[in-house]
Target: Branched-subunit amino acid transport protein
Amino acid sequence: MTGNLTLVPILVLAAGTFAFRFGGTLLRDRVRMPERVRDLLGTGAIVLLVALIATSALTRGPAFAGWALPAGVLVGGLLAWRKAPCVVVVIAAAAATALLRLAGVA
Model:
């Protein structure tokens, strides 16, 4: 029974996502958005991404994640900003977090 309760929202979201993408392709030449709206949509996407990163890096469940995880995310962010390859970013962030935890930083 629980599987059906989970499957229905997933299918609804999948159909909605498909409709948005397909609708965007069909209406690309017919609908013009003002430049201000385009700017706000871009800013909104950045704010949403930063909020997702912040909650993932700073919390584990309902509690603070400790200092090692945010430090690892910071290392990865700095390397990504410096245009390091993705593999290097991920490995360096994981290594920084692991080394800090090994050193006793929670």
